[in-house]
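Researcher: Let's continue the batch. This sequence belongs to Zinc finger protein, and it's 77 residues. Same format as the previous ones, please.
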Amino acid sequence: MPPQQGLTYVWRPIPAGRHAFAAGALEADPNCPVISYCGVEASATELHGRTEYEWVRRGTCMDCWRELTGSRPARSS
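Model: Same format as before. Here are the structure tokens for Zinc finger protein:
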């Protein structure tokens, strides 16, 4: 059973930070770009083979976090 089965999204550290991607992005063609929930584009190959150091070193993208939790800041009028 693939580790992402049942998940709707996954977090992955890429050079631009730790972003959330649709779980299906893990199965994307390595030559295709994938888009995070906040709109950052990455190569599908960047989602695989990440080290523990990268997980710790990359900060969580708060725009992805807000998108997934539905907690966007209130807009002022």
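Researcher: Any comment?
Model: The chain has a mean pLDDT of 87.
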